[in-house]
Amino acid sequence: MNDKSSPKPAQPKSRAKTGVPGLDNILGGGLPTGHLYLVQGDPGSGKTTLGLQFLMEGVRNGENILYITLSESQDELRGVAQSHGWDI
Asked: Is-contact 16 30, C-beta < 8 A?
């Protein structure tokens, strides 16, 4: 006789908060961890702002962070952060 065990219920994945409370609410607590995400959009649509918010949330949670860009200089990133009153 085959002893097939019943499937285990799916375990909820841990979530990484984005730093944007409304977005985290829509996403059920944040982005599922263990995945790679690409943020794409037109210039001025908020990609850099979202990325910086996500990284700052990681810092608040004691995580190591890394920001890689192929299009923005350090001064430009600091300018975006400063425009929001953030100190990076």
From this structure: yes
Place of tokens 């690409």: 38
Using DSSP, state whether 15 is helix, strand or coil.
strand
Q: What pLDDT shows up at residue 17?
A: 95
Predicted local confidence at residue 57, as pLDDT: 95
Rounded to whole angstroms, the Cα distance separating 34 from 80 reads 28
Q: Which of 20, 82, 80, 8 is nearest to 44 (CA)?
A: 80
> What is the DSSP code (8-state) at residue 29?
S
DSSP 8: P
pLDDT-derived band at 69, boundaries 50, 70, 90: confident
DSSP 19: S
Band of pLDDT at residue 12, cut at 50, 70 and 90: low
CA distance 86 to 25: 23
